[in-house]
Write a structure and sequence with these properties.
Layout (H helix, E strand, L loop, with lengths): L1 H11 L5 H45 L14 E5 L5 E7 L6 E7 L7 H16 L6 E6 L4 H5 L22 H11 L17 H13 L3 E6 L4 E5 L11 H13 L2 E2 L8 H8 L4 E5 L8 H17 L9
Parallel strand pairs: 3-4, 3-5, 5-8, 6-7
Antiparallel strand pairs: 1-2, 2-4, 6-8
The structure holds zinc ion.
The site of zinc ion has 3 residues, from loops.
């Protein structure tokens, strides 16, 4: 039974003298110059957050999601800049000392729409409720691909035409990414992995969030495939669970349509789940219909809160 479950889990998956001092002076000047440019850019971008939030609020009004999102009520931090210069925002709720850290990513595919409502609903929930969970920390990255969202029409890809969920430098990228894009996906523009891995600011932003916060688990919100996909790892101490529990999990897995959609070169699940060993769950909302967004938040809220509060058991010592 244990073996069967293991197989299932693996299938369901679900890392410088004279000249010298001159060089040092030059280097430090270059660094100073660069620092002042960066700081000027940071100020510029800082000003852009209100404008980003105003645009998000307009999107809310257009879709009858209410007069405003939770965007303006949060002191977002900036983890990068999109291709078109928009701020890539995140916020960490809960104490930095908390060991149970969940990273939520949303809207890497900007034409999927419903995850936008869900992620800002999570922000609103977190402002009110995270204090109830002193050992939990939530790092929310609600809007990975703003350029694609504000493009007309909206696009899955970023402003370079790259699918940022196929652009992570996974071990199989060089060998497989462009090849499988050409053959398996018949050069579908919507799935273009880029000319080289880690080429896009939106991809590097996600990697930086993982590196900075070292989450114990990741939830990535998409639509409209109506399923839950679990990407690795397979090192949870499964042998500590009873047979009855395992049976119930498998039943639930079928009921909630959890499955493995396979691994794509350069995807988050492949990079974070498989290679870094961080449990990574993809929630695919049933549709991208804006009129359904509120219903999805009602329906999935409890599950999302469970993901945030659940403590991943430590690695088993096999
Ligand atoms: Zn997607």
């Amino acid at each position: 039974m244990k073996t069967t479950f293991k197989v299932n889990i693996q299938h369901s998956r679900a890392t410088r003298n004279g000249i010298l001092s001159l060089i040092l002076v030059l280097l430090s000047q270059t660094r100073d110059a660069r620092a002042s440019v960066e700081s000027a850019q940071a100020d510029e971008i800082q000003k852009d957050i209100p404008s980003l939030c105003a645009d998000i609020d307009k999107a809310y009004i257009k879709r009858n999601w209410g007069k405003k999102s939770a965007c303006k009520g949060i002191k977002w931090k900036i983890g990068g800049t999109s291709v078109e210069g928009r701020p890539l925002i995140y916020f960490d709720f809960g104490p930095s000392t908390a060991t149970n850290t969940t990273l939520i990513f949303s809207m890497v595919h900007a034409d999927e729409i419903t995850p936008l409502y869900l992620s800002f609903s999570v922000a609103e929930w977190a402002l009110e409720n995270m204090k109830k969970y002193p050992n939990a920390r939530l790092v929310l990255v609600p809007f990975i691909n703003p350029d694609g969202f504000f493009d007309t029409p909206k696009t899955r890809m970023n402003a370079h035409g790259v699918d940022c969920n196929r652009n992570f430098a996974t071990k199989d990228w060089d060998r497989d990414a462009l090849k499988s894009w050409k053959t398996k996906f018949k050069s579908d523009k919507r799935r273009f992995p880029g000319i080289k891995p880690d080429s896009e600011p939106e991809t590097l932003f996600q990697k930086a969030m993982i590196e900075k916060f070292k989450p114990t688990k990741i939830l990535s919100i998409h639509s409209p495939l109506n399923m839950i996909d679990y990407d690795g790892p397979d090192h949870l101490p499964l042998e500590t669970f009873s047979e009855e529990y395992v049976k119930k999990c498998l039943e639930l897995r079928n009921k909630i349509k959890a499955r493995s959609s396979g691994f794509f070169p350069g995807s988050l699940g492949n990079y974070a789940g498989q290679e870094l060993g961080i449990p990574t769950i993809t929630l695919e909302l049933p549709t991208a219909l804006p009129s359904k967004a509120k219903e999805y938040w009602q329906y999935f809220q409890k599950g999302i809160v469970t993901v945030v509060t659940y403590e991943v058991p430590p690695k088993s010592k096999k």
